[in-house]
Amino acid sequence: MRANATIIGAFVLGAIVLLVAGILFFGSGTLLQKRIAIVSFFHGSVAGLQVGAQVTFRGVPVGEVKAIGIRVDPTTRASIIQIDMRLWPDKVAIYGPRTAADDKLVPTLVAQGLTAQLARQSFVTGLLNVDLDFRPSVQASRFGAETGVAEVPAVQSEYDALTTKLEDVDIEGAIRSVQRTLGNLDAVLTTPELKQAIKELPGAVTSVRHAAQTIDREVAQLSRAARDDLASSTAALRQTLASVQSLATDLDRETTSTLGRANTAIDSTNAVLDPNGRSMSQVQRAIDDIAATAARLRNFVDRVDRDPSILIRGR
Fold first, then answer.
1. What residues does each domain of the chain span?
2. Structure pTM?
């Protein structure tokens, strides 16, 4: 029994329609989107990057990887990895008037610092994608080959930068140093003295705590005694100051009285010693009288000396 050609044709046509509808539905119309071809060249390993991997801009999917290849220079035997990508311009909204056509859009963005970098999707799977971003301060490499599409300069991935730094580290020397340190530490920890010190440590801690408590009590008692002594010393000092003040008052009064009496005595002395004063006149008259009396006595003695009988006869 031969199959009906009309039925077979209708079945095939329906399958094609369903296939196209599925592609348009599940692919969100990506087949109808306009693509922009770009290329980047990487010097390091791209292990983990696959065809079909996403091209993102700060995590937002804007394209996909279309091909991965190697370029080799037969003269120098230098090699570089070529990554062909396709961008979906409809994924990016341009604010304001567009200053360049679609074929000039990527070179304009590259001039403003757009670069490509390999980014790890997951440390578990190890898969990579290509991340685009503006990195004007990062040194980027440009291969400059004639590929017919715009080239986006590539920058070293963070993993490659870390690997480059680790290559300069003397890991073996660091390991030997750690081993020597651990050996010395093990030798110290296994010494009998340290073991004995560890055994005695709880008792020492208890003694230290007891000493600290004793010191706290003694300091508290000393503080109370110091406060009491300070209070008594303050009272004695106040009493002494009062006594000194009273003594100063008495001294001031006695000094004033003594100075008054001294002034009076000085005045009396001045009055006595004054040549024109009464006392000095009386003293002068008394001296004159004494002098006259002495002259008479001398005359009488001379007369008696010349004539002793005068004492019997009188005159």
1. 34-167, 171-271, 278-313
2. 0.45
